[in-house]
Amino acid sequence: MSNQKKRNFQIEAFKHRVVVDPKYADKTWKVLEHAIHEIYNHNASGLSFEELYRNAYNMVLHKFGEKLYSGLVSTMTSHLKEISKSIEAAQGESFLEELNRKWNDHNKALQMIRDILMYMDRTYIPSNHKTPVHELGLNLWRDNIIHSSKIQSRLLNTLLELVHRERTGEVIDRGLMRNIIKMLMDLGSAVYQEDFEKHFLEVSAEFYKVESQKFIECCDCGEYLKKAEKRLNEEIERVTHYLDAKSEIKITSVVEKEMIANHMPRLVHMENSGLVNMLLDDKYEDLGRMYNLFRRVPNGLLTIREVMTSHLRETGKQLVTDPERLKDPVEFVQRLLDEKDKYDSIINKAFSNDKTFQNALTNSFEYFINLNARSPEFISLFVDDKLRKGLKGVSEEDVEIILDKVMMLFRYLQEKDVFEKYYKQHLAKRLLSGKTVSDDAERSLIVKLKTECGYQFTSKLEGMFTDMKTSQDTMQGFYASHPELGEGPTLVVQVLTTGSWPTQPSSTCNLPSEMSALCEKFRSYYLGTHTGRRLSWQTNMGNADMKATFGKGQKHELNVSTYQMCVLMLFNNAERLNYKEIEQATEIPAPELKRCLQSMACVKGKNVLRKEPMSKDIGEEDAFFVNDKFSSKFYKVKIGTVVAQKESEPEKQETRQRVEEDRKPQIEAALVRIMKSRRVLDHNNLISEVTKQLQQRFLPNPTEIKKRIESLIERDFLERDNVDRKLYRYLA
Amino acid sequence: MAITGARQKAAVQALKASDWHLEGAFDVFYSQPQSKTHTDSRHLEELYNRYKDPYLDMIMADGIARLCNDLQVDPQDIVMLVVSWHMKAATMCEFSKQEFVGGLQSLGIDSLEKFQERIPFMRSELKDEQKFREIYTFSFGWAKEKGQKSLALDTAIGMWQLLFAEKHWPLVDHWCQFLQARHNKAISRDTWSQLLEFTRTVDSGLANYDAEGAWPYLIDEFVDYLNENGVGADGFSRTIGA
């Protein structure tokens, strides 16, 4: 056996001598070129993917990427040029179809080519900053087909033509459109926009400009808006079907601009059908449509709001200054409430409760309700009417609803203190004559006023209620302690705390002896239990129920005022009395006495007295008799109840004067309060602070504030600064 | 020296300080505090006694009239107001001894001659902005009735006419007319002092009148009155010759 020597093995790489055939690149390329041709000729099935891939791979590997790439470009380009010709040759309808078909083919081809050339795509192309194959394919398509001079404009026009036809009602091939548009989108947003969208928008603008002009000439506002809405919806639908989603906002703004924004003023102010007419006729649907359309354009809602506001202000102003309306305060306020309801409805149903519209409504109401200085009085009269009879039989919830609505009107008032004054007067009359329909309703309203204006506003009103209750208890106590009085006339006394009730100067009146004795007993009873108080009879505010038997035996129960009672009782002792005698006996002041006699002698159905002469006015020499012939359908006859009425001119002046006088100390108190805390403040800021503090109750007049400031300077509460005369200083 | 009543030394000083310009010299002189010239208190006592009322220890209207006569000055002359101001007189038409003597002392007067010499000086004080203001303010307290807070309208009008004859205010007549027509009540101190501000700040055409300017309401009403009567924007008074 031979000795086997250890020998070092070396395994060397198999050095395969690659013989670079000079013609190698050309040959390889030819193969690939051929393949591309086949692919474009729909003959790809005969090709071997693996072989082609390897060929391409080798070319790149052996540094022939450049050749491969440029070959690709030129081959593809030449194919595309042919394709272009065939598309150009297509006639009419088939143009788009041909284009679409060729595009699909191209995409398929491109896919395959890209797969084959994937190695190049991943190595040669990036490192040489060349366009990747797929993108290249799209660009070449774009440059050779889409931007070909014979195709470019034809394509655009065809597309626009189709859109136009669809707009005029024809049915078009949406699928085809979608594909073509998608093609443009795939080619890049620049292509889509430049080659289609831009022109599409321009043409659309033109179209809608013309159409809107046509419509506006022949349609009324409501119809026009319907059409505009329809068009808008169409365009949105069009986009979803075959355009780029990003176009939606662009095309809708074109429609909005052309159909709405450009015609807004004309639409809104259109005679007989514009916004104002819609408001008047409660056209909720039309208004809602207008709202939805206008909110899309700048200043659309602003326009609606402005027109609505000015209309409302105008209407409101007429309402409150119309002399006819002012004759009946209850009707006046009802009309205001109706108007408010109407607009609340409109804002709710058509303007989707838009807050800015609600604010506009509030501002308008605030504006015109305060144009009439009697608004506070009238609102109080309205409430008075409701609480006397209007709310009879109304359910609790409905009562609340009505009162809440009244509170809304109350909030709009600038001069809330005037309302307070009247409300007090009217409440007093209601309470004293026992004429209120529902105690609960009364209290409910007081609570609402308290919530709105604070405790001080309602403390006196509440005091009035307390007095009524206390008086009831007092009466019970009185009769309990004087059982012997059960037989005689029944006395009901209401003890009113001065200061809570509206002041009235009490006047003289001689009560008939039966009554005065009774009253004295009450007085001593009361003062016995409440020392240190003073009572004064308010004979001008009372009433009495009397049983009367007339000449033919007819019996009636008469409800009369205290004054009237005094007069009538005189006739128990005399057949005939003249004016002077009555005056002397009763000591009732002349104007009241005359009114009282008039109501009993000169009013049909209430003439329990007969007067000679039969004139309407009371003369000093007139004589009075009991009217034996008096008759009435009713057993109970009401004569001269003290009902709250609209004030006469002089009374109104007086009330207003009192209100003005009351305001002065309030202004001064506010001034002192503010200056005390600020120490030093300039004129303008002081005025605005005072106004702010008082505006819950009333709007102070700046001139009046100035006068109060000067009065405070006089009385050494404030001084002017030496250097800056506009600055005030608080003097401790 | 004739005009200012100054001593020769002071006069020369003033002239030197102003480089021998006469106008400047006046400024210099008046801006210096007056040197306290010596007054003889006996002479002052005599002077006082000459004019004092027989029954009261005061110089009353009668005495003042005689004083004016001796000075050859009209009692209505505004210089008497200036005199009263120097005396810090409490009420018009009467001087207490202290007021009279104290005032004359501060002016360096102890004889009628000296008094007469000082009169031109006192007149000139009205030309001084600051002094005029003090005199104006003083006049309110001086002219009103003792114990009253406000100045009676007639008196106020008289004072205004006197004062604004010195320091010319073109609207003074309108103001007085307005008050008589529309106001007819006494004038408060605030209104009095604010009026001076008004004359100094607002021009007679009312161009720079600021309605938000915290003027007393009476002045606001005056402006309204002027506007009603066509005085205003163009600066011309149409009813009375400006």
TrEMBL record, chain A:
SMART domains: CULLIN, Cullin_Nedd8
Gene3D superfamilies the UniProt entry points to: Cullin Repeats, Cullin, Chain C, Domain 2, Winged helix-like DNA-binding domain superfamily/Winged helix DNA-binding domain
Cullin family profile domain boundaries: 374-601
UniProt keyword annotations, A-Z: Isopeptide bond, Ubl conjugation, Ubl conjugation pathway
Molecular function terms from GO: ubiquitin protein ligase binding
Any one Pfam family match given in the protein's UniProt record, by short name: Cullin_Nedd8
Coiled coil: none
Protein's UniProt name: Cullin family profile domain-containing protein
Origin species: Linum trigynum
UniProtKB/TrEMBL annotation, chain B:
MF-aspect GO terms: cullin family protein binding; ubiquitin conjugating enzyme binding; ubiquitin-like protein binding
Domain DCUN1: from-to ranges: 39-227
InterPro entries on file: DCN-prot (IPR014764), DCN1-like_PONY (IPR042460), PONY_dom (IPR005176)
GO cellular component: ubiquitin ligase complex
A Pfam family reported for this protein in Swiss-Prot or TrEMBL: UBA_4
GO biological process: protein neddylation
Gene3D superfamilies: Cullin, PONY binding domain, EF-hand
Purpose: Neddylation of cullins play an essential role in the regulation of SCF-type complexes activity.
Record protein name field: Defective in cullin neddylation protein
Organism per entry: Linum trigynum
